Amino acid sequence: MINYLLIVSRQGKARLSKWYATTTTQAKSRILKEVTQLVLSRKVRMCNVIEYKGRKVIYRRYASLFFVAEIGYTDNELITLEIIHRYVEVLDKYFGNVCELDIIFNFQQAYNLLDELVISGELVDTSKKAVLRMMEGADVTEKDDQLRSALTTGGIL
Amino acid sequence: MPTYYNLKALIKGIRGCKTVADERALIQQESAAIRASFREEDTFQRHNNVAKLLYIHMLGSPAHFGQIECLKLVASPLFTDKRLGYLGIMLLLDENQEVLTLVTNSLKNDMNHSNMYAVGLALCTFANIASEEMSRDLANEIEKLLGSSNTYIRKKAALCALRVIKKVPDIADHFIGKAKNLLTDRNHGVLIAAITLVTEICSLEESYLNEFRSAVPLLVRNLKSLVTTGYSPEHDVSGITDPFLQVKILRLMRILGKGDEQASEAMNDILAQVATNTDGSKNVGNSILYETVLTVLDIEADTGLRVMAINILGKFLSNRDNNIRYVALNTLNKVVTMDTNAVQRHRNTILDCLRDGDISIRRRALELSYALINEQNVRILIRELLAFLEVADDEFKLGLTTQISLAAERFAPNKRWHIDTVLRVLKLAGNFVREEILSAFIRLVAHTPELQAYTASKLYLALRSDISQESLTLAATWILGEYSDILIEGGIVDDDKTTPVRDSELIDLLLSCFDSPYSNYLIRQFLLAALTKISARSTTSQPEQDRIAEVLAKYTTSPELELQQRAVEFASLFTLGETRVGVLEQMPAPELKATVMGVVSERKPVGSTKAMDADLLGDEISNAPSASVGSQPPVNPQSNQDLLAEIFGSSSELATSTSPPAAQPQKSSVDDILGLFGSSSSNSGPVPQTPSALPSYPATPATAVPSTFALPQSATPATPATPSVRKLTEYSAYEKNGLRVTLTPQTSAAKPGIVMILARFQTTGPPVTGISFQAAVPKSQQLQMLPMSNPNVNPGATETQQMRVVAPVGSNVRLRLRIGYTADGQTHQEQVDFAGFPAGLTSGTA
């Protein structure tokens, strides 16, 4: 199980933080600070696993962003890297050549996409296509709704 | 107050801030505005405000006041409001918050929503944050949705079920039937969620586990089809079909196959197939291989498969990808207890990893190397670990020093090596040594009289070159204090040269520790005691004794209470003359602790002992190591009786003792230790006519002394295990046919009535062989003997035998000796009475 997933910029700013294991607010901000520091201090050729307070933290850097996930003791580190990669692929497909700004300005969509991929710390689908299809479906529903409500308030419907 | 109209403008505004302070001010301002707007119940602005609030929240500002607004959004009929509302709930709430109970109703409604995306939102929210109460309330809804015809809803419901059983394990049985059905699902999303669910159910209870064992063939089929089907665009990851699902299946198999022959048997083939066919050139493939290895190692796999698994890990170790090496080291750590030999084969690779640039790798490799140490490789591995200790990160040092010392204790080939190893640890990382390790070291030295001179001189040199290592300073202070006489008599032994040490130099060194910036309270306490001890030794000259008295006087006004008290007490000891010398005698060797030293003394070569007097030494007999018992000829008690009856005329009058012949196997260890001792004691010269300059005490194979004569709870706790050499006199007991036997008695003031007698055998002519030396004492006394170091005496050599007599205080020690030997081809058998010891030997004053 993934306990949390963070996206952190190279400057150490949180761009997304999703907590699957119940964590207090203080613990969250402490982990965010300390893990970010650990991850940022890593050199390029080092392995993608760090140990933080006896927990396994997997991270991977994509351009200016670090994707960080803490997993359970018996979980597979290598497949976690693939899950992170899958998330990045989905973001990339969704935004079309995703960059940090996309995630900053559309953080809700980044969260929504993650919710289609990982629920309760577990992968919920293994098909990129399925995830994107569902995301699109939800987006369409949202737009339809917005349109309908605009028309309703405007008195047209 | 200027507030930003929408989210985008706010984000731009925040990004435009030049300083952190500006940014904080802006966020505070905006946050206040949002709060005000919430208070006004501005429904039109709600969506916008919550979105802005969530962004602010991500930057680390409090956003709890938005919780209720999220609930309101969720209750809205609009999907766009629901989506943001649920997102906000997942970010701002967790299972421990009261407000969450208010969400239950909305979740229930949305789970029955006509739009599948709304159902999906509710399920996702539930699975991420449901509390125990909520899980109970909505378990039925979830169960119903597990049967939905929509895969999007089924897969999410399966993970909701996972949440339910995690929060309320006792209702897991409600989900078993549905979970079984889901395992046959063709949709990969549903299947992976179902397998996750089943894995959790199986870990809850043995009975559930048995229930799902029937699913093994199904899982095998699923895995097989993933491995064998060709390219499938939907689920392909660099040439491998759905690695995520494969890993999940392998993991479930691991749980189902563990401890079940039949299930394991059913998996063997497919596991072998996955292990051989998966392409290990990319991370994806390796993640599957890794999971396969874990499964093979956990289930009751056949040996071929296990070998294959360990070989995969071996291959991982030489992979250039650091991640692969990391997981390999990690996994070998688990394997090492099961199959040490397989891991030993990769020892060099593992040791190389200690020098890796990556701390994660170093940490794993280090743990693994601890586990690899055994009797055979202890020298090599400890050498590597010591080399690593020199360059290790501080965070590793404490663990390293502890592990090295423990390993040295368990596997040391001899005590010299053990002492050398700990000395090195103290020198390299003296500030990272646990107290237990330090005291175990001191105990070891106290129990090894043969090496006290050696250790003292090493520590003297080490302390002279570095006083910044706390534990080194403590150990050196203690040992130099105890054994200063040995050091001063023996000088410093370094590279076969002996440099004399003057008492003033030793005291200068200790005094310099007092004033060093590294000195601390504890060190100063040790120093005071050490100096006081040194002052009481006869090797310390009067001017130096006066100097120590001055130092003590200085500390009698120390503001540090413990120091002041010690100094006052020690100073008053100075006025007590003879009593002072008695009080400040060498410490008796401390009790052997089973946890630490016990292991050692049992494993190391120990001299044979055969304590004869069960009444007195009952404890000792039961504790006496019997390492060489096998080499003793059986001794018939009756024949002993006869013998003694013959010696003394009446067997009932006597307490007797005979000793077994020396145990040959110990010979080599004696040589080892004596060999290195030779030069250090040569100029202490306490014993005339000892050409080979043996220390006067190694009567027995080295380790026999502490183990026999200084056992815990023995009748003679204060018997010094480390008798000092200097004031002993030798008495000739026998000299005929070239064989000369002398006896050296030694007493301890602390324990009157106990006399240690060292018998020495030398030959002035041809070699004397087959010596049997027996002794008896009057009935009122008791005698214990250790075996002879060697029953054959060569010209120039000295063989020894240790005896201990317990006599009433004030009585004279008399011995009747029976000596049998062969010299020059002739066998001799003689009996002598010996009463040449001075009177008063047993009153402890001699």
CATH topology of the largest domain in chain B: Immunoglobulin-like
SSE run of chain A: EEHEEEHHHEEH
Counted up, domains of chain A total 1
CATH-defined architecture of the largest domain in chain B: Sandwich
Inertia-based shape of chain B? elongated
Give the strand line-up of the largest sheet of chain A. Answer: 2-1-5-4-3
- CATH class of chain A, named Alpha Beta
Protein chain pair with the most extensive contact, residues per chain: A-B, 54 and 72 residues
> If you compute it from the alpha carbons, what radius of gyration of chain B comes out, rounded to the nearest whole angstrom?
40 Å
The chain-level structural class of chain A is alpha+beta
**Total helical segments of chain B:** 38
* C-alpha termini separation of chain A: 47 Å
Strand order of the largest sheet of chain B: 6-7-8-11-10
Fraction of residues of chain B in helices?
Answer: 55-70%
CATH topological fold name of chain A: Beta-Lactamase
In total, how many beta strands of chain B?
13
Total DSSP helices of chain A: 5
Q: Which percent range fits the helix content of chain A?
A: 40-55%
Rg of chain A (CA only): 17 Å
Low-confidence stretches of chain A: none
Residue-averaged pLDDT of chain B, rounded?
A: 80
Subcellular location (chain A): Cytoplasmic vesicle, Clathrin-coated vesicle membrane; Golgi apparatus
Pfam family, one (chain A): Clat_adaptor_s
Organism (chain A): Ephemerocybe angulata
Keywords (chain A): Cytoplasmic vesicle, Golgi apparatus, Membrane, Protein transport, Transport
